[in-house]
Every structure is written in structure tokens, then in C-alpha cells.
Amino acid sequence: MHITGVVAALMLILSCFLPWVYFSSINETFTGFHVIPFANGTYYGRAGIFITVLTLLVLMLMFVNRAWAKGANLFIAGLIFAYAIRTYLVFTASLFPNEVTKKPGIFMILVFSLVLLLSTLFPRTQNTFDR
After folding, report:
1. pLDDT tens-digit profile of 4-49?
2. In degrees, to the nearest 5, what angle opens at C-alpha 91 toward C-alphas 119 and 78?
3. In this predicted structure, what is the pLDDT of residue 41?
4. Residue 49 CB: number of other CB atoms within 10 A?
5. In the predicted model, what is the mean pLDDT of residues 114-122?
6. Dihedral, CA atoms, 91, 84, 33, 27, nearest 10 degrees?
7. What is the pTM of this model?
8. 67 CB-near residues (< 8 Å, 6+ apart)
9. What are φ and ψ of residue 65, in 5° steps?
10. Strand partners of residue 101
């Protein structure tokens, strides 16, 4: 599962750069890093920054062979998955039918954050508790 976790982490970071949703009301495509405020003042924020920073932290902790690192990795991966669900709900919600078109990136953050969480559930444990 170690290689799967590394690939999932890299793909999760990549998916933050891909298009997430298209809003027909303002004729704009949002990604994890490109989000503009609506005319009414609503601003979704750049969720890609938070996801990328935490994913890089998980990626670094995957190579630390300590018990605390495995526990921290599990907690952070769970946080990433919960934030990915929250991001999906926020970005795809609309008041009017057919206002939001979901793009592949929004689905990728859900899938790869789940794969990352599952890979941290089964870490590579060579002599983890001996130290």
C-alpha cells in the first residue's frame, strides 16, 4: 500500500490544478487554486492550498518509520478526506438547476483522498514499534 499511497498523494495534488466546476451564471471555471468571488460576496476560498499542504505532509510522513508518524498520517489523511467531502458539497451546491457543471477534478479529489486514507490504514510497518 506504500506505493499506492504515494501515487494517490501525487494524483491528489495534481487534481487540485484540474477544473473542478463550471458556473454558468458567471461564466467561470473554478479549480483548487483559481476561485473568484461572486457578485453577492460569496467566496469559496482556495481549497487546493489546504489540500496540497496537508497532502505533502502526509507524503513526507509516509517515509518516517515511527509509530507516531503512522498515527499522525492516519489523522491527517482523515482530515483531508473530510475536507474533500466538504469541498465537494460547497463547490457543487447551487440555487438554480443546471448552474453548476461538475468537472473531473472535483471527483478526483474525492477518489484520491479516499485512496490516500485507505493507504494510511495499512502502512508499511517494518520495525515501526521496535524503536
Report:
1. 989 999 999 999 999 999 988 888 898 989 888 777 777 778 888 9
2. 25
3. 73
4. 12
5. 91
6. -20
7. 0.86
8. 128, 129
9. -100, 60
10. 22
Whether the per-residue pLDDT at 127 is higher than 80: the answer is: no
What is the DSSP secondary structure assignment for residue 106, as one 8-state letter?
H
**SS3 at position 22:** strand
Give first-to-last CA distance, the chain, whole Å: 22
DSSP 44-100: ---HHHHHHHHHHHHHHHTT--SHHHHHHHHHHHHHHHHHHHHHHHHHH--SSTT-E
Strand 21-23 to strand 28-30: parallel, antiparallel, or no bridges (unpaired)? antiparallel
Q: What is the mean pLDDT of the chain?
A: 87
Whether the Cβ atoms of residue 51 and residue 32 lie closer than 8 Å to each other: yes
Q: The C-alpha cell of 115 is what?
A: 485512496
Strand order in the sheet with 21-23: 28-30, 21-23, 100-102
Q: What are phi and psi of 22, to 5 degrees?
A: -120, 125
C-alpha cell, 6: 504515494
**pLDDT band per the 50, 70, 90 thresholds, residue 98:** confident
